UniProtKB/TrEMBL annotation:
This is acetylglutamate kinase. It comes from Linum trigynum. Its EC number is 2.7.2.8. GO terms for cellular component: chloroplast thylakoid. HAMAP family: ArgB.
Length: 348
C-alpha cells in the first residue's frame, strides 16, 4: 500500500522572490578565493551587480530592473537550493548580529527565505547584552570567570526571564512578521536538553553543560516547515535551571538532529592564520588542521570553544561546520547560497 500523502504549504515563487530585498541584491556579489573541497558546488556564484542588459530591438544597453535581478538570483540559486532542500541547518545567533537592528533584520529575513525554499533552519540563541542590561537595571553587577558568566541563583532567575521570556519571543515575533512560522522553545521544553553542572561550578554557579539531547519534540516542527527558535537554558534531572553556552547547545543539537550544516554567527571573519592580519582568513580546513592551529596557538581565547564545538559536532556526524562573520548583512545567504561561503568551513 502506498504511503499516505501529506500536503504542506508551499509559498508561491513570487512571495519568495519578493523576500529578496534590495539590501540582499546590493550585497550578493561575491569575490572569494574558492574552497578546494568537493562540498562546494562548481563554478557558480550569485551575481547581482550587473548594470545593463542589451535591448533586443536596437542593441543598446539598458539598466536591469530589480525584477530582472531577482529572477537572475533565483535561477542561479537553484543548485544550492537543490543541494540543501530538506536538510537541517542549525544556526547559532549572537554577537553584533543580535545587537544591530539592521543585522538582526537580515538574519531573520535570511532564515525565513531559507525556510521558504525548502531548507530546515533551526536557530539557537543566547542574549548576553540583554542579560547585562537587565542586571544593571536591577543594580546587579555582571561577573565573569574565564569568559563565562558567573550565575548565582538570583542571576539565573534573570537569565531565564530574559532569554526565554523576552529575547526568544522577540525573535519569534520578528520571524512571524517576516512571513515565517517560528516556534519559541528553551532546552527545558519537552526535555529537549538535559543539563549537568559545569566542572567549574564552584566558581561559576549555575552554568551548565549539555548532558543529553532528546530532539523528539523538534522533529515534527521541523518536518512541517516551522522554524524552532531555542533559548540556551536547560534544567537537570532535579529541575535546577542552568545557563548553557549557546555555541555548545547549537553543536549538540546539530549532532542530535543529524544536521547537514552547523553555522556559528560571530563577531570575527572566521579563523585567521594570523590573528593580527584580517586578510589571513582560513577559508577551509579539517579537524586535523584545526587541532594543528590550536597547538600552534593560532586559535586562542574565545575562538577555542567555538572551534571545539564545531569539531565535536562534526565528529558526531554533522557534515560541515562554519564560523562566519555575523557583522556582514545576509551572511547566512552568502554562506549557504554561494560558491565560496563567507567565513571558515570545517570538514571531517
Amino acid at each position: 500500500m502506498a504511503a499516505a500523502t501529506k500536503t504542506f504549504f508551499k509559498p508561491p515563487l513570487s512571495s519568495v522572490a519578493k523576500s529578496i530585498t534590495p539590501s540582499i541584491l546590493n550585497s550578493t556579489k561575491l569575490n572569494y578565493t574558492p574552497h578546494s573541497s568537493a562540498k562546494r558546488l562548481p563554478s557558480l556564484t550569485i551575481r547581482a551587480s550587473a548594470t545593463a542588459v542589451t535591448s533586443p530591438s536596437d542593441g543598446a544597453s539598458q539598466p536591469k530592473s530589480p525584477e530582472q535581478f531577482r529572477v537572475e538570483i533565483l535561477s542561479e540559486s537553484l543548485p544550492y537550493i537543490q543541494r540543501f532542500r530538506g536538510k537541517t541547518i542549525v544556526v547559532k545567533y549572537g554577537g553584533a548580529a543580535m545587537k544591530d537592528p539592521k543585522l538582526q533584520a537580515s538574519v531573520v529575513s535570511d532564515l525565513v527565505l531559507l525556510s521558504c525554499v525548502g531548507l530546515r533552519p533551526v536557530l539557537v540563541h543566547g542574549g548576553g547584552p540583554e542579560i547585562n542590561r537587565w542586571l544593571k537595571q536591577l543594580n546587579i553587577e555582571p561577573l565573569f570567570h574565564d569568559g563565562l558568566r558567573v550565575t548565582d541563583a538570583e542571576t539565573m532567575e534573570i537569565v531565564s526571564m530574559v532569554l526565554v521570556g523576552k529575547v526568544n519571543k522577540d525573535l519569534v515575533n520578528l520571524m512571524n512578521k517576516a512571513g515565517g512560522t517560528a516556534v519559541g522553545l528553551s532546552g527545558m521544553d519537552g526535555r529537549l536538553l538535559m543539563a549537568r553542572p559545569n566542572p567549574n561550578s564552584a566558581q561559576l554557579g549555575f552554568v551548565g553543560d549539555v548532558d543529553r539531547v532528546d530532539p523528539t519534540m523538534l522533529l515534527p516542527l521541523i518536518t512541517n516547515g516551522h522554524i524552532p527558535v531555542i533559548a540556551s537554558v536547560a534544567a537537570d534531572e532535579a529541575g535546577q535551571s542552568y545557563n548553557i553556552n549557546a555555541d555548545t547547545v547549537a553543536g549538540e543539537l546539530a549532532a542530535a538532529l543529524g544536521a547537514e550544516k552547523l553555522i556559528l554567527l560571530t563577531d570575527v571573519a572566521g579563523i585567521l592564520e594570523d590573528r593580527d592580519d584580517p586578510n589571513s582568513l582560513v577559508k577551509e580546513t579539517d579537524i586535523a588542521g584545526v587541532k594543528k592551529l590550536i597547538a600552534e596557538k593560532k586559535v586562542a581565547g574565545g575562538m577555542i570553544p567555538k572551534v571545539n564545538c564545531c569539531v565535536r559536532a562534526i565528529e558526531q556526524g554533522v557534515s560541515t561546520a562554519s564560523i562566519i562573520d555575523g557583522r556582514v548583512q545576509h551572511s547566512l545567504l552568502h554562506e549557504i547560497m554561494s560558491e565560496d561561503g563567507l567565513g571558515t568551513m570545517i570538514t571531517a
